[in-house]
Amino acid sequence: MLTQVRIVGSGLIGTSIALGLTARGVEVELVDSDADAASLANALNGHASAPTPELVILALPTSAIPLVIEAEYALNPNSTFMDVGSVKNEPIVHIKNSSLPISQFVPSHPMAGREVGGAQAARADLFMTRSWIITPTAECDQKSQDLVKELIEGLGASVVVLDCDEHDRAVAAISHIPQITSTLLGGSLASMPIEWLALSGA
Question: Which partner for 121 in 31, 39, 84, 116 could form a disulfide, CB atoms 3.0-4.6 Å apart?
Fold first, then answer.
């Protein structure tokens, strides 16, 4: 059962996770290399600490994982680690090149966000009814997976298990949908009478 969580990165996703967990009685510590961002996030979350976290969440850009992973593993050698990035092969490579055993790492991607970023945009209910993908490797132990699933379901999201390659293909395809939709919409608008377009304020 989750009682303490450490979150590295205090942007929209990290702070939203913190707010959601805190509302459920979990002790959450937020840290960030940007002192101002960390101060804002902790002000929102109540400046809690988590000296012995069961779970460490890497809520930062995938490219930044190598910059923090050794220090975080040294601080929390018995913790399960997870990320929340939108690609899944890259963080696995970073972890395999680090001291952290891959068995303690669960790659994940919450399918949630907002039009604005930063801690000031965070919401405790950001993940409610959303899908949250995990892509555990063959080496990932069941205890780590169960801990991450507990977190996801506790935040109101649904766990979806995918292979990391399938995840990256699916997300790449989904990212093109808005462009395809706008192109199709633009084509249909071009055939409309100008008077109709005027009704929309266009």
Answer: 116
